[in-house]
Each structure stands twice: as structure tokens, then as C-alpha cells.
Design brief:
Blueprint: H1 3-21, E1 54-60, H2 65-80, E2 85-91, H3 95-104, E3 111-114, H4 119-123, E4 131-135, E5 141-146, H5 153-165
């Protein structure tokens, strides 16, 4: 085997190894992962904390221009739909940056969390931001938006409105 063939084989082996090490991103219809990071106070919200609500999870950073535009829109959704919607804004920056941002955003009613160790990003298959996941009242992923902009807003809002209008899932019997 020549050096270039050995290089190709080695690169292919590394690619295959890496692809098996990365968790598959959840897709529409899957149960949503429970990892959303932690709040400034150390609270780690879970999906079970919001039974019967549509949960909107956005992964964001302060340097992302669209993210800065999106947060007020999501805050408006949170305030308007406080009984039927929960927005969780997961910051992907350093803990120190998150602390400063969260202190300046105390008036927001959405849940602000920090993704320490990128656990949430890994669980949701985040490779870039903005990254938004809409979770139905039953805990299943309804829609995933990656790297979107303002032109995607009508579609995103249509999915959210349909999710809010959907009937509550029947309570599951306990044994």
C-alpha cells in the first residue's frame, strides 16, 4: 500500500470511529432529551416540569445576531402562552458570559439555562446556532430548525400554533 492509500484508510477509519462516538440527533417523533442545562441558581429543568405544555428549546449565544432578535419574540410567546407554553433558552457560551447575560435578562419570564459541558447540545445534536426544537405536549419532538433566519418565522410560528391548539394528551395510568 502506498502512503496516500494508507492515509485514506486511516482517515476513513477515524471518520467511522468518530461517527459511532457521536450520539444521533433526535428527530421528529422522538421523545425529547431531558438535558437543558442549569439556571443561574443551579436549577436543572426537566421536561416533566412542564406537563401538558408545548416546550420550545432554543440554543443561543450573545454573538449570534439572529439569536438576539429571536429572544424577544420567544419571550412574547412565553408571556402570551404562559399556561400552555414554556420557552427554555439554552446559552452555549462560557459560564461567566452566561452569568453576566442572565443577570441582565432577569426581567424575562422564559427559562434561561447554561449548557455546561455541552450536554444539552450533544443530546439535541446541535452543531451550530440558532437551533430551535419544538416539543409537543406529549414530550415528543414536533419540529427542529437549524441555522434558520427570519424567513423561517412563519413556518416556526405555524408549528407552535398547531402544537398549542392540539388537544392535551390523555393522562397515562399509573401502576
Amino acid at each position: 500500500m502506498t502512503v496516500s492509500n494508507l492515509t485514506r484508510v486511516a482517515l476513513l477509519a477515524l471518520f467511522l470511529l468518530a461517527s459511532h462516538m457521536v450520539a444521533a440527533a433526535p428527530k421528529v417523533g422522538d421523545m425529547a432529551p431531558e438535558e437543558f442545562g442549569a439556571t443561574l441558581n443551579g436549577e436543572a429543568p426537566k421536561l416533566a416540569d412542564y406537563p401538558g405544555k408545548v416546550v420550545i428549546v432554543t440554543f443561543w449565544a450573545s454573538w449570534c445576531g439572529y439569536c438576539r432578535k429571536e429572544l424577544p419574540v420567544l419571550e412574547g410567546l412565553q408571556r402570551a402562552g404562559k399556561n400552555s407554553v414554556q420557552v427554555i433558552a439554552v446559552n452555549t457560551e462560557s459560564r461567566e458570559e452566561f452569568r453576566d447575560l442572565a443577570r441582565n435578562m432577569r426581567s424575562l419570564t422564559m427559562k434561561l439555562t447554561h449548557d455546561a459541558g455541552a450536554k444539552g447540545s450533544k443530546a439535541y445534536g446541535v452543531n451550530g446556532i440558532p437551533h430551535l426544537v419544538i416539543i409537543g405536549r406529549d414530550g415528543k419532538i414536533l419540529n427542529v430548525h437549524r441555522g434558520y433566519g427570519e424567513s423561517s418565522l412563519p413556518e416556526i410560528l405555524a408549528v407552535i400554533n398547531a402544537a398549542i391548539a392540539a388537544p392535551q394528551p390523555a393522562p397515562q395510568p399509573t401502576n
